[in-house]
Amino acid sequence: MSTETPDLPDLRERLDRAADAPSFRAVDLDAVVGRGNRLRTRRRMASGVAALAALAVIGAGLGLAVGSRPPASRDLEPAGTSTGPAPTSDAPLAWARDGVVHLGEETVRPAHGVDAFLQSADGLIVLGTDGRVRRLDAGSPDETLLDPSAPPIGDRFAPRLVTDGYAWVGWVTAPRAGDVQLHVVSLLDDGSAPRTTSLAGLGTTDASPLISISDGTAYVRLAEGVFPMRLDSPGAQQVAPLPSGAGDWVVDVRGGTVVRTVGDGTTATDQDGRTRTLTTDGRPILGSRGLVSPTGSGYAPDLDHVTVVRATGKADLDLTPDVGSRYAYFSTVYRWIDDSTVAVLAAEAAQGPYALLRCDVYSRACGTEVRLDSPDGLVLPTGERLG
Fold first, then answer.
1. Cα distance between residue 352 and residue 219, in whole Å
2. How many angstroms separate the CA atoms of 229 and 212, rounded?
3. Which DSSP string do the residues of 135-185 spell out, in sequence order?
4. How far is Cα 292 from Cα 81, in angstroms, rounded to an integer?
5. Helix (H) or strand (E) holding 298
6. Fewer CB near the terminus (10 Å): N or C of the chain?
7. Which domains are assigned to the chain?
8. In what order do the strands lie in the sheet with 290-292?
């Protein structure tokens, strides 16, 4: 493999429409619901709840701090080797509508609109309606085009931005027939230039090729499997795909933990190669969408009701927060804020109202941070648009 450089009358229909195209294999929703589960990721509400991905902090007086590690008393040790800063749990839950990003009482209107957006450790990463990707740093009115040479993100793959939250952001373009390009940009002030890797001729699938970025590695889905591409060694990449069996589907990769759908279940493999089946209430977790926590220790599948489980270790551990009976109709994790905190999209009924909740997976406590009458036009910081 050669390369130039390394490596959201019904709510369910809206979620699935946003999630089907980007990066996950189509699944029979009726069959899954019939077994008591629903598909989720990014992705995905508001930018695609099945791959949902980050909360933004920008504007005067708003900043991001390094997140705390999980309390030891809950027996959830980090599985991976992520060492970069994580978003603080105190930062406002971000959302956008009509081209305006809301962060608590602060708002910001990017000059080129908001088609999708993400958060980095220092601000917002915004996909404008012009198809270009820009960075808006906290406390600064300036917008920086991340890769001036990159073509606009087109429609061959549903637009998707991916970040590890602090060091890298990536996306895929298809500027012309037969040409697919992976663009990766450093978010650190290290002077490194944007990197473009041509995936032409490598057998891309109908799904968006870029799955995740974690620990300095971009995970790219190609016809022959999911390939880890190292980003810290210009000109180098791993050519061996992640181990997989027939019918396996890689859902997400974070902190060294690989979550896959295997037959009628979901497995998690840690960085030492230990694999186990993930369950909830003693039943296998179904569906091909979900989110792994930043260090790989937890997993939030896309189900009708919010569910969080431990992804590593020898025994199952239910980490599902209590969203209360008010949101018995629907609730799902749309992003991990840090390894102990999740952001949840919840609805009292199909017609609303809706809410964005901040939940702690250790205390199980949740608090309502944003209330919305309607999801119309809503964009969440997942890197994807609502279909």
1. 36
2. 11
3. EEETT---EEES-TTSPPP-SSS--B-EE-SSSEEEEEEEEETTEEEEEEE
4. 14
5. strand 298-301
6. N
7. 11-372 (2.130.10)
8. 290-292, 298-301, 309-310
* Identity of residue 131: G
Q: Is the peptide bond before 353 cis (omega within 30 degrees of 0)?
A: yes
Closest CA to 292 of 334, 250, 259: 259
Locus of tokens 């997140």: 67
Which residue's entry shows tokens 């209590």? 322
CB contact at 8 A, 33 and 7: no
pLDDT tens, N- to C-terminus, the chain (387 residues): 333 333 323 333 433 444 443 333 332 323 222 223 332 333 333 333 333 222 222 222 222 222 222 333 333 333 333 333 334 457 789 999 999 999 888 899 999 999 999 987 778 999 999 999 999 987 777 899 999 999 999 877 777 899 998 899 999 998 887 788 999 999 988 778 898 888 877 776 667 789 999 999 999 988 888 989 988 766 545 557 888 777 789 999 999 999 999 888 999 999 899 999 999 888 999 888 899 999 999 999 988 899 999 998 877 789 999 999 999 999 999 999 999 999 999 999 988 899 999 999 999 999 999 999 988 899 999 999 765
Q: What residue type is assigned to position 336 of the chain?
A: W
3-class SS of residue 240: coil
CA atoms within 13 A on the CB side of 132: 17
Write down the residue that tokens 């840690």 correspond to. Answer: 270
Structure-block tokens of residue 380: 């969440």
